[in-house]
Write a structure and sequence with these properties.
18 strands; eight-stranded mixed beta sheet; RNA-binding; 423 residues; 13 helices; three-stranded antiparallel beta sheet
RNA sequence: GGAAAGAUGGCCGAGUGGUCGAAGGCGCACGCCUGGAAAGUGUGUAUACGCCAAAAGCGUAUCAUGGGUUCGAAUCCCAUUCUUUCCGCCA
């Protein structure tokens, strides 16, 4: 959530920036500031009231010690009055705080000023395109047929065991998964990331910390008996490691990488988007997370962008990088790059990674802070990105590398798969 | 699943109704000491919100969470959550 101090000091700037995300925040911002004034007035009254009560209590204590029972009892009547008032004021204060908090939570993060203007995915700015799109001739299959042909991923069997969107990987299909996970983890470790193996279920507090709760709970699988949620991404447990922490400035940048299975209900999805590996309820992903000093977060974003690009180059996949426009950015992001690989058989671009700088938006909600050079605590910046999500990478690898002999495995992966071709 | 114990600051740990935001220790920071270090020694060391132009300062809240008793609660009462240990089960 946005910092209240920024809203107080520069409401116009906030309104202007949010307009880039096509949001008219004028009314909400005014509302927040009005509530803020009332909230502070109420707190002042309550604090004064409590201060008086505390003083009287102290005085009564002294009087009792001196044996002046009568004087002490005389003071008690005033405290009853104060107590009634305090109760009322603290109820009011709580209500105002809740009101302000709800309003603040309803505002998305401010996009960076350099964010492209636009309404939808059409308006995203393509900032790089790399690699060669293979010419498959006229005999080629989409991945959902290739997986059947080579018997490496069984969607039907997954339906039998669980339901749609829970495929079963078999033989070289399973080994390819394992190879990709190991490859992605090892690359990250080489780049200085600390590997984390997080729980796949989290409690409610963690869900709130990264913003899945209370709004997006429909997107998560819920273990009602124990009030746990299956994680939709490793970002949730990994980022929550730093919830309510004040880290040391020398620790920056904090770099974590985590492989996890991810579980998403994907309520409301349908059609060609969900065919085969394009959208699953359970999938594998390696996620990179960085926590950085505010002055350096944008340099870090570029570093992460370059890191993901390098992975795709090693996999020899044609890809492009998009700078998302205001209308297509997520609620929490200030700047997002999307990576898309070209799927030659489906003849379309598939999103495989999203690398974002959240600035202090997540950190504010989670109270993730650090002590700066002057000893003042301030919010850290958080960034994350997929590096990478497996299913669409697999789809593109299968489709783009299909040959008459079989599916060729890119050289960089062979050390991990132990085979060069799926046939 | 059954039984018991427990939850206090970055960590350990004292504290059973007032002078407790909380002894003591560790850690950390800065200084002294030292040729340099260790040891020793001195000082400091929570967070949030509010008041104030700001700093200083002041006020309020926080001893798992929520409620209650009381003029006054870390301390007493109730509920909840979590943790540990033992038994059972188990990869």
């Amino acid at each position: 959530m946005l910092e209240i101090t920024i809203l107080r000091e520069n409401p116009e700037m906030v309104i202007e920036r949010l307009a880039i995300k096509n949001i008219d925040a004028r009314a909400t911002v005014k509302n927040i500031l009005d509530v803020d004034v009332k909230r502070r007035e109420t707190q002042k009254m309550l604090d004064d009231n409590l201060a008086e009560s505390n003083n009287i209590a102290r005085e009564i204590g002294n009087l009792f010690k001196q044996g002046k029972q009568a004087d002490a009892n005389a003071l008690k009547s005033r405290t009853a009055e104060l107590k009634a008032m305090a109760k009322e004021l603290s109820d009011q204060l709580e209500q105002l705080q809740n009101e302000q908090n709800e309003l603040l939570i309803s505002l998305p993060n401010m996009p960076n000023v350099n964010t492209p203007k636009g309404k939808s995915a059409e308006d995203n700015k393509i900032i790089a395109t790399e690699g060669n799109i293979p010419d498959l001739g006229d005999k080629f299959l989409p991945h959902w047929e290739l997986t059947q042909k080579y018997d490496i991923i069984d969607f039907e069997l997954g339906v039998k065991l669980t339901g749609a969107g829970f495929p079963v990987y078999k033989g070289k299909g399973a080994r390819l998964q394992r190879a990709l996970i190991n490859f992605f983890l090892q690359e990250a470790i080489n780049a200085g990331y600390l590997e984390i193996q997080p729980p796949l279920m989290v409690n409610e507090a963690s869900g709130y910390g990264t913003g899945q709760l209370p709004d997006k709970e429909g997107q998560m699988y819920h273990v009602t008996e124990d009030k746990f949620y299956l994680i939709p991404t490793a970002e949730v447990p990994v980022t929550n490691i730093y919830r309510d922490l004040i880290v040391k400035q020398e620790d920056f940048p904090i770099k974590n990488v985590a492989y996890s299975q991810c579980f998403r209900r994907e309520a409301g999805s349908y059609g060609k988007d969900v065919r085969g590996l394009n959208r699953l309820h359970q999938f594998d992903k390696v996620e990179i997370v960085q926590i950085q000093h505010p002055d350096k977060s944008y340099a870090t974003l570029e570093e992460m962008r370059e890191y993901v690009a390098a992975l795709l180059r090693k996999l020899e996949l044609p890809f492009r990088v998009l700078h998302l426009c205001g209308g297509d950015m997520s609620f929490t992001s200030a700047w997002t790059y999307d990576f898309e690989v070209y799927s030659a058989a489906q003849k379309r671009w598939l999103e495989v990674s999203s690398v974002s700088n959240f600035e202090s938006f997540q950190a504010n909600r989670m109270k993730l802070r650090f002590k700066d050079a002057n000893g003042k605590t301030q919010l850290a910046h958080t960034l994350n990105g997929s590096a990478l999500a497996l299913p669409r990478i697999v789809a593109a690898l299968l489709e783009n590398n299909q040959t008459a002999e079989g599916i060729k495995i890119p050289k960089a992966l062979v050390a991990y798969t132990g085979f060069e071709i799926i046939d």
